[in-house]
Amino acid sequence: MTLLERLDKGPVICAEGYLFAMERRGYLSAGAFVPEVVLENPEVVSQLHREFIRAGSDVVQAFTYYGHREKLRIIGKEHLLKPLQKNALEIAKNAAKEFAELNLMVCGDVANTNIYDPNDKSTLKQCQSMYEEQVRWAKEAGVDFIVAETINWVDEMKIALNAIKQENLIAVSNFAIPRGDLTRDGYTAEEACKIIEDLGADVVGLNCYRGPKMTMKLLKKIREKVSCHVAGLPVPYRTTEEEPGFLNITDHNCDCIPGGNAFPVALDNLYCNRYEMAEFAKNCLDQNINFIGICCGAEAHHVREMSIAVGKKPISMKYSPDMKKHFHHGVDSSLKRVNKEITY
Ligand SMILES: [Zn+2]
Asked: How close is the Cα of 140 to the center of ligand 1, in Å?
């Protein structure tokens, strides 16, 4: 079944956020944020794929995010571009194979190039070749579809979409919307999505930057405007009307963060819990938004609760909380009732 056939039938869960997850675990550096881990410690990437799959991700996304030519240039390792991309795709495919009975989809990923500049035509050509080479490698690997994401220019998204459609692949086009609720070329989220839908994107929506509430606010408008499937993949952080995106966000309960910006490595106190992410997933379902996921900050417990919230039964549901047997809160008859009167 293709992605679109699956979306016609109901929700598809897509876990992302590999870059942040690997940074937290100590396998890549915040700042440059290059996924060198797929070459240096591939088993760690495989394990995170497994955790997300067990938690209910229907999609195994190859960890090629920010493994593009520009990022490798910044760290002086452009020669690693092809092996990095190829390895990431292979790791994702192998993880999906380990769970053959789940019929998972594998997707390729292209993202913000960070060089797109409407005033410098040479960057358009560079973007085009960066997208084309990545899409080609993903196609060679036999992916089910490609996600183009975290892009905040409509015209950059057009270049990515063209590259995907040249190879006749299914395209999921997800914008990241900055403060002010407009793309950097001045379109509302719903206008941007409509333009890209009309140009042939199969799924349009939002990922990254915003937490579930600030993402949902814009998703509703997108849903009203377009007729194709819609995607929503927020970051699991409590962004607000005052600070809708997590790139510039304050942790008002902490005064020891260097520079004062909680992004990217001091976001811990702004974390959404699993229930908040489950609520987002349920809201998506109510709004007929079927491509449901989670971006930077994701952990498996979020994904599991989101999957359960939309009616699925992920493998790790087996280990959902069961407080009946908790030493203090439990009511199970097998528990010894020692010091139950104490409130800790
Ligand atoms: Zn993200």
From this structure: 26
